[in-house]
């Protein structure tokens, strides 16, 4: 299976162990719901979240908040346009390594 890393990533010292499948999670919002309400959900149900369309979404890498951005669509797929990379995050450290090369 391909690692998904470019030659530039590899030359910057990033290896597949730095980024694992499932290590990135994007949080759009949240909603507290009672278990009986969850059991009532059916196809077509709407769950209102605690965030708004223009709010930043959170990008978590390896379980830690790494960046914030806006949801967008790229070639018909959902994506995140990163607006802020948090200092000290795994993503920030990776970018610093790339910039040092």
Q: Count the domains.
A: 1
Round the Cα radius of gyration to an integer and report it.
Answer: 17 Å
Broad shape: globular
Highest CATH level, the class: Mainly Beta
Structural class: alpha+beta
Question: Helicity level, as a percent range?
Answer: 10-25%
Poorly predicted runs are: 1-6, 8-16
Largest sheet, spatial ordering of strands: 1-2-3-4
What is the annotated CATH architecture? Roll
The rounded distance between the terminal residues' Cα atoms is 27 Å
Main beta sheet strand tally, sense and closure: 4 strands, antiparallel
Q: Give the number of DSSP strands.
A: 4
Overall pLDDT level: 76
Beta-strand content: 25-35%
Which series of helices and strands comes N to C? HEHEEEH
According to CATH, the fold-level topology is Surface presentation of antigens (SPOA)
Looking at CATH, the homologous superfamily is SpoA-like
Structural summary, described in words:
The chain has helices at 7-11, 35-39, 90-100; strands spanning 24-27, 57-61, 64-74, 77-85. The longest helix has 11 residues, at 90-100. It is an alpha+beta fold. A four-stranded antiparallel β-sheet has the order 1-2-3-4, covered by helices on one side. It has three helices and four strands; from the N terminus they run αβαβββα.
């Amino acid at each position: 299976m391909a690692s998904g890393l470019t030659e530039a990533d590899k030359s910057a010292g990033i290896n597949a162990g730095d980024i694992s499948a499932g290590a990135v999670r994007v949080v759009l919002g949240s909603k507290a719901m009672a278990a009986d309400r969850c059991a009532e959900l059916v196809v077509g149900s709407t769950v209102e979240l605690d965030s708004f369309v223009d709010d930043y979404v959170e990008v978590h890498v390896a379980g830690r908040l790494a960046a914030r951005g806006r949801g967008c669509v790229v070639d018909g797929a959902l994506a995140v346009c990163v607006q802020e990379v948090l200092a000290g995050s795994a993503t920030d450290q990776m970018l610093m390594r790339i910039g040092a090369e």
